[in-house]
Design brief:
This protein has eight helices and seven strands. The protein has about 200 residues and is of the alpha+beta class. A hairpin with a 5-residue loop joins strand 5 and strand 6.
């Protein structure tokens, strides 16, 4: 009789321990799931926060000169508007190819109008991805013209499997960065500063 009671007690203890173990596993699994979802939500929120071209380049060291130029020209709000754009963004190296002292002159109040014209020439309306540009080139027999916010035409062509941009003066620039993320706009890093016809 005693043995029977002792056996019953042991069975109940075993069930309780097993139940607690299962509950702990469930809690651990739930905590891991919550952690994974939190990480995913954080990563998604970071991507969602980078909506515009301005958001994408403003903290990047390789576009520090361009960012300074956009601030000097007071174009941040214009480019950060609700309409999608494609920004062909000259890198710091691109600006360094300009004649000595030119960048400093453009950043001065006297150079503001010229700076605005130059920077707006690097922007076109609409989010044109790299694949979209290539598709448009194929549809137009390898020739594509995009109207910039400055009002002049920017020519796009393909050379040695690379996209080439040409301004009205015959200056050219290659797209050297095409993986800059933004949910609303398209951003391409280019290796030269392009200039509209009247400059």
């Amino acid at each position: 009789m005693i043995h029977s009671k002792l056996f019953g007690i042991l069975v109940l203890v075993g069930i309780f321990v097993t139940s607690c173990g299962e509950k702990k596993k469930d809690v651990d699994a739930a905590e891991k799931l919550d952690e994974a979802l939190s990480v995913e939500a954080y990563e998604n929120s970071k991507e969602d926060s980078i909506q515009s071209a301005v958001d994408a380049i403003i903290d990047r060291e390789d576009f520090a000169t361009l960012t300074k130029g956009l601030k000097s020209a007071e174009l941040i709000e214009t480019l950060d508007g609700k309409d999608s754009i494609s920004l062909f963004a000259p890198t710091n190296d691109a600006f360094s190819k300009l004649p000595e002292g030119k960048v400093a002159d453009l950043m001065q109040p006297a150079g503001k109008n010229t700076l605005i014209s130059i920077l707006k020439y690097h922007v076109v309306k609409g989010n044109h991805s790299l694949d979209d540009l290539k598709s448009q080139l194929n549809e137009n027999n390898g020739a594509l013209e995009l109207e910039t916010l400055e009002g002049e035409v920017l020519k796009v062509s393909m050379e040695n499997d690379e996209l080439l941009l040409t301004d009205p003066n015959g200056n050219t620039a290659k797209i050297v960065k095409s993986d800059i993320a933004a949910s609303k706009d398209a951003i391409f890093g280019i290796d030269n500063v392009l200039k509209p016809d009247q400059l």
